[in-house]
Amino acid sequence: MGNIRAVPDVPAEPDMEALPESRTTLRTHLAAAAGTAVCYFIFYTVNEWLFRQTQFTEGIAWIYLPAGIRLICTLLFAEAGCAGLLVGSLLTASTYRLFPHDPVTAAGYCLISAAAPYLAYRFTLSGMDLGRTLVNLTTTRLMACILLYALTNPLFQLIWFVMRGVYPDFWSGLIVMSIGDLGGSLIVVYLFRFLLSFLPLPRRRP
User: Can you tell me where the transmembrane regions are (predicted)?
Assistant: First the structure.
């Protein structure tokens, strides 16, 4: 018994196969966030070019195309989409000088633009039983998502605007922003659907 020595604990070797997989996942999330930010900025620019003259007031538009990007990117990319929306919102706010004399309002506007769609996304996962793969996303559920997203962001934004004294008329702002987000979401969703119709469908194996 006296000659038996305890074997020292050997540290477990790291799983070398898991490291490349985690790096690939990180790169995928970064690419999704970057793509979301770029798409948001592009669609905001297009919206400014097409509908600037019909804008109701600063931060409130009758047609708001980036609302569709919020819907699509949060449904597809979840947390990465939320991060991309925040970056894209900050980029547009600085480029187009939204609320230039009130950086607190601008920062809140950007945070809500990213957080409100994500909250709606979390609700759709549980309330509509979609799952992260969106296998249950029927046309009816997609329309329900569009309505939910078109109401969530305007509600939080108008509460923030009233708190900041930027736009005190809550109900008129809520109605106009909801119409703008709903119209913008429908335009973008059906635009993407139209573009996807040109892609070749995968062949089924016999």
Answer: 26-46, 67-91, 103-121, 142-162, 174-196
